[in-house]
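Model it.
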Amino acid sequence: MMSALTFVVAGCVSRPEKTVPSVLLTETQMVDVMTDVQIMESAISYKKSAGGQTSYLKTRGFDTIFAHYGISDSIFRENYDYYIEDMDAMQRILDSVVVRLNALK
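Modeled.
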């Protein structure tokens, strides 16, 4: 009896709904942006390992990527947070990013 009650009570607890970003990027758009972000992160990592300064690259690089897509870093973050709540969608996005990055090699 106790487990049935727990099930009913747990079923009545409302889960917060996913917050839709102010500007919702499609999965394809997220793949585009995340591919470029990953390339930039790799460039920063490479430059850092070679002993170079990366602060300018970090600031300007990401700003340039987001400006190219007509978004801000906060819009990107909102969309990332939105898609991370849907693991199937995020897995599709990440898989597509990997395919693109491999094609660029």
